[in-house]
């Protein structure tokens, strides 16, 4: 079997989750800024802030749920388990032992 390289392993679940949480938090922070700006701006800026406040949650969830894929080779997983039971003739009954 080919030796697995550490550089071809996928990102750990904790690191991937942290990355997705950061992306989501940044998008929600921008949304809060848009909501606050809606109180102070007028005209086209108000429309732009309203669109941002309404559309950002949708796109934040989509971006947060995208899983990153490694650029390396796929992870090699071991094959099935093989059970070894020793010498099979040691477990056979002889006709005179009955």
Folded structure, characterized:
The protein is an all-alpha fold. The protein has a domain at 10-66. Helix content is 47%, strand content 0%. It is built from two helices and no strands. Helix 1 (13-37) runs antiparallel to helix 2 (44-64). The protein is rod-shaped. The two termini are 47 Å apart. Keywords: Membrane, Transmembrane, Transmembrane helix. InterPro entries: DUF3099 (IPR021449). The chain crosses the membrane at residues 21-39, 45-67. This is Putative tellurium resistance membrane protein TerC.
Topology:
Elements: H1 13-37, H2 44-64
Shape: rod-shaped
Rg over alpha carbons? 29 Å
- Could you tell me the strand content as a percent range? under 5%
Count the E strands. 0
Write a concise synopsis of the structure shown.
The chain crosses the membrane at residues 21-39, 45-67. The protein is an all-alpha fold. The chain contains 2 helices and no strands.
Task: Kindly list the characteristics that best describe this protein.
rod-shaped, 0% strand, mainly alpha, membrane
């Amino acid at each position: 079997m080919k030796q697995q390289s550490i550089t071809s392993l996928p990102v750990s679940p904790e690191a991937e989750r942290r990355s997705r949480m950061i992306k989501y938090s940044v998008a929600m922070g921008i949304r809060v800024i848009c909501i606050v700006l809606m109180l102070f701006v007028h005209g086209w800026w108000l429309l732009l802030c309203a669109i941002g406040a309404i559309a950002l949650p949708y796109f934040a969830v989509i971006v947060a749920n995208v899983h990153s894929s490694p650029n390396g080779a796929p992870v090699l997983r071991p094959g099935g388990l093989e059970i070894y039971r020793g010498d099979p003739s040691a477990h056979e009954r002889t006709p005179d032992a009955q």
